Amino acid sequence: MDTNQILAALQHSPLPERMGNFERTRTPQEPLQVDEGEYLIVEYRHLQHDALFQVVMRGSEAQFITVLNGEVNPLQTVSIEEAGHLLRRDLLMMLEDLDDEL
Fold it and tell me: Could you tell me the superkingdom of the organism this chain comes from (predicted)?
């Protein structure tokens, strides 16, 4: 899957700059290659703690992860299309759950 396909799949996913105690640091419009065939396509950073919420794309799948104090915690792996649906529907809830862990 290339960046145009990522953008098409996530074009209707609202990614506000700030949500609760998080600020957006990466959007699908600016994917960051993190490994061969892997792209960081969404990232939110906590404003007061060492915590990240990330969506990493591998092939046609997206993995939702949290990074707390450098420790990577996979949440779920879904298709890129499903990732768009989950971000539209559950992004605030996912960020609130991460905030509660802190």
Answer: Bacteria
